[in-house]
Amino acid sequence: MAVAFHDVNSASGWKKLDDYLLPHSYITGYQASKDDVTVYAALSNAPSAEYVKVSRWYKHIDALLRIS
After folding, report:
1. Would 3 be classed as within a structural domain?
2. What keywords sit in the KW lines (predicted)?
3. pLDDT for position 58
C-alpha cells in the first residue's frame, strides 16, 4: 500500500482518510483491492456522517464484502 493511514479510529485519522478519499474512490488504484479491505478491517466502527467521503467508501466496501 503506497498510502499509510495510522490511527484511523481517531478524529485526526478519520479526517486524514476523509481528505484522502475526496479525489479517490479507493485506497489504491481504480477498483477495490486488499488495501481497501485492510483499511476497512482497521476501522473499529462505521464512520459518522460527519466524514462524508469515508462514509461513502465504507458503505461501498461493506457492500462488496457482503456479496463476496
Report:
1. no
2. Elongation factor, Protein biosynthesis
3. 97
Domain assignment present for residue 10? The answer is no
Q: How many domains, the chain?
A: 1
Residue range 6-19, pLDDT digits in tens:
788 999 999 999 99
Determine, yes or no, domain membership for 54.
Answer: yes
The contacts found for 17-20 with CB under 8 angstroms, 24 or more apart, are 17/51, 17/53, 17/54, 18/47, 18/51, 18/52, 18/53, 18/54, 19/53
CA dihedral 43, 61, 57, 32 (to 10 degrees): 110
Which residues constitute the domain of residue 48? 32-68
What are the residues whose beta carbons fall under 8 Å from the beta carbon of 59, sequence distance 6 or more? none
